[in-house]
């Protein structure tokens, strides 16, 4: 029996990393609009509090937990505090991520390390802190934010593309290991969306022209268009969807 409750998240707590801005903020808003209580995250506590206040003013149930997703001790402390102070984390969205661009042979070692720490290590760090607790409860949903860049070779983004390739395979591996414990792990793969992360590309008319021509839907994505797919993956409707990467990309991956 399918009704509106199939897609509702009432009574569930979701932790969305990197949700003080951009895609994470849109996903957090969507999950909260679907009924979840949402814990927002980012490193900048003031920015995070401003976002929390904004969503609270929209009538949504939101909390804030400022921590760095690349720091295992901070993540463990934060997850323990959320579970003790609010509720068990039933939905984890591993969204925090960064992008740096440059030719492979000129790429700074520090930038490589930052990308890998933020985009890949964080899934292991926050994912493990939450999954260990989900395993004891025998339920949970983990959604990792992937990217079309794991499929699409482009100049100047080799480290970022490699990090998202790792996200893709980590998602599948996590699904295989956590599935027997009642947990699903899926990826949500955005195409090109206008956020801080892509601000320079949006301003670059040559790139924007290429992108619009390359995308069957002939436009950039709006971040709010990602939220329904995230709600779906977190909801009862997706109970048997596991280890899948759902691309929301205006058809970019269909052309590969
Ligand atoms: P933004 O730069 O707009 O936002 C990034 C968010 O992550 C901010 O809230 C930031 O807050 C937080 N963040 C960054 N580093 C950390 C950290 N170490 N610990 C905790 N929070 C952190 O990025 P987008 O919204 O564009 O990207 C979000 C995700 O979507 C990323 O994984 C990205 O790779 C992916 N993606 C984006 C696409 C796009 O077109 N925009 C396309 C495909 C994938 P603070 O700085 O305060 O920590």
UniProtKB/TrEMBL annotation:
Keywords: Oxidoreductase. InterPro entries: KR_dom, NAD(P)-bd_dom_sf, Sc_DH/Rdtase_CS, SDR_fam. Pfam families: adh_short (PF00106). It comes from the Bacteria. PROSITE patterns: ADH_SHORT (PS00061). Residues 12-191 form the Ketoreductase domain. Belongs to the short-chain dehydrogenases/reductases (SDR) family. PANTHER family: 5-KETO-D-GLUCONATE 5-REDUCTASE, OXIDOREDUCTASE. This is SDR family NAD(P)-dependent oxidoreductase. It comes from Pseudaquabacterium inlustre. The lineage of its organism: Bacteria, Pseudomonadati, Pseudomonadota, Betaproteobacteria, Burkholderiales.
